[in-house]
Amino acid sequence: MAPTAGTTTSTTSTAPERSLNQRMDALARANQIRTQRAQLKRDLKAGRRSIHSLLLDPPEFVETAKVFDMLLAVPKYGRVKVNKILVHCRIAPSKTIGGLSERQRSELVQLLGHRP
Prior knowledge:
Layout: H1 20-46, H2 51-56, H3 67-72, H4 79-88, H5 102-113
């Protein structure tokens, strides 16, 4: 059934209005988080940080990062290997570090402990 000509149905939701200061604060926080994540990825790649410690006790800025992206930063882990690991642990590629269940977290750490 088509709506009649004079009625409009709008189901789109919009973000609440924010002041300029609120928007600038949100942008500054987002930039800080991106900078911290980029440094963390460099540290993972260089071996200065362990993926195990990151998964077991994640800092606040990495809780919303994708598990897939963090695993890609580990040396010798490419897209194919990371996808196989995530499938084996039954973790969706879009899952965030903070959204991992205890089972997923421990299974992932255990599997990564037996690196080939």
